[in-house]
Amino acid sequence: MLIADDLDNLLEILPDFIKNPLQTHKSRKQLIEIVLDLGRRPEARFPSRPEYLSLRNISWADLDFCLKQIGSFSGDNRAGLEKTLHRISCIKNRQGNIIGLTCRVGRSIFGTISIIRDLLERQESILILGKPGVGKTTAIREIARILADEMEKRVVIIDTSNEIAGDGDIPHPSIGRARRMQVTRPEFQHQVMIEAVENHMPEVIIIDEIGTELEAFAARTIAERGVQLVGTAHGNCLKSLVKNPTLVDLVGGIQQVTLGDDEAKKRGTQKSILERKASPAFQIAIEIHDRSNLIVHENVESIVDQVLQGDQILEQRRRLDAKGKHIIECDLSFQSDIKQSINANLHWRNLSEPLNLIPRKLPLSTKKENIEIQVKESKTLMLSKKAKTITVYIYGVSFENSQEWVESLEGSITLTQIIEQASVILGLYSKVKQNIKLRRIAKIRNMKVYTISKPSKVQVLRALQKIINVTVE
C-alpha cells in the first residue's frame, strides 16, 4: 500500500512552535488533523489519542500567520492548499472573525480498495457509508483513478470542497485521467451534478458527501439516465440511512401503505405498513467501519425490503488480516433494535422483550434455503441444557405441529391447550394482539407472553429457546 501525504506542505503554514514538534513526531505518518482554537493550546489528533503540541496558547497573531498562507474560504468555510489534498476548515464568531482552524491531513493511498475491486467491475452504482474520518473520501479518490485509468471510463468528479482532487485549478494526480468539476457554492452541488450529465457525457459520476434532499433527488435523476454513480454519505449503516428522511430517497424512499383486512391477516402485520417507494439510486452499499473492515450489501433493494419487514439480514463482511489477506465472511444479522425501528410492520414484537440471539457465522457460499436449517441446528444444540419442566400454552399456532417439533428436542418443555396449566404463553403476534382477554389473563396470572410473526418451525424453536433461557436464569 503506497501512501502520499505531502505533510510538509501543510506544516509550512503553521507557526514554528506547532510545526517543529510535528516534524520530529514519531507518529506523524498517522496524523489525522491539527486543531488551532483561539486561547487554547494547539492539539494534534492521531487515531489512538489527541496530543497537545505546546504549552503556549493560540493567539490572534498565530491565526493571522496561518490565514495569510491559506487561500480564501468558500461558502462552506473550507479552504485548501494548491496541489495538495489537505483541507483547512474555519470556525467563526458572530462578527464573522475566524477564531479556530481545523487542518485535516489529506492523503492519497493506493491499494485501499483492492478488497472491493470486484464490485467496480459490475458497473453498478455504489454508495459508501461511514462516520466522518473513516476514509470515505480516500476510497472514492482511488475508485476514480481505477475507473478512469485502468477501466478507461469517462469519469467526472463533482468536487464541492476541492477535497477529492485538491485545491487549485489543476487536479491532483491521484485521480488519474478523471475530470473534475468544481462547485462555486455547496448549495449548487445538485445543479452541477445535473450539468455534468447534460454537458460532458460521463459514464461515471463521483459525488462526495451527499447530504441534502436536492442532492439525493439529483442522484436518483442521474441513475435513471443510465449513468453509474459512486457517492458517499454520512451514516453508520444502511439501516440508519433508511431512517434518515433526508437521504432515504437514495435507497428508494419509503411510503406508508394501508392493507386490507385479509392481506394484513395473511402477512401477520398491522394494516398500516411501510414499503419501499421506488428502485434505489444505488444498487450496492458499502459500510466502512474502519480502513480494514467493511460490510458489503450487494443488493440494496432486497436489503431495504428486509429491513422494513424486520427480517434477518445476511451481511457480507470483508476485512484484511495482519498479512494483507482478503477475508470474506457472511453473518446472519438479527435486528436487535427492532422495537425502536420506524417500521410499522415489525416481525418480532414481543409483549415482554425481544429475543437476544447471537448471530451464527456462515460461509460465503451459504444460500438462503440453508440459513433456516443452520439456525435450527444451532438452536437445537442450545436447547439440550438441563432445565426444569416448563409448560407452554400455544395460541394461534398448530398444536399438533408444535408438539411434533418439541418432541425432536431434548429440552424439558411441555405444551398444553389449557391455559390454567401453563406458566408461559407462546402465540402468533397478530392473534395475541386482538385477544384482549388472553392478555388480561396473562397479567392476572403474572405469565410472560412471547409472540412470533409466523407459525414456522424456526420461529417456534427460537421462541422456545428464549423461554428456556429466561427460566434457567
- Cα gyration radius (Å): 28 Å
CATH H level of the largest domain: which superfamily? P-loop containing nucleotide triphosphate hydrolases
Structural domain tally? 3
Biggest sheet statistics: 10 strands, mixed
Count of helical segments? 15
**What distance lies between the first and last C-alpha atoms, to the nearest angstrom?**
50 Å
- Level of helix content? 25-40%
Given the C-alpha coordinates, what overall shape results? Answer: elongated
- For the secondary structure, the number of strands is 24
Strand share of the residues? 15-25%
CATH-derived architecture of the largest domain: 3-Layer(aba) Sandwich
- The strands making up the biggest β-sheet line up spatially as 11-10-12-13-9-16-17-18-19-20
CATH class of the largest domain: Alpha Beta
What is the fold named in CATH at topology level of the largest domain? Rossmann fold
**Whole-number mean pLDDT:** 81
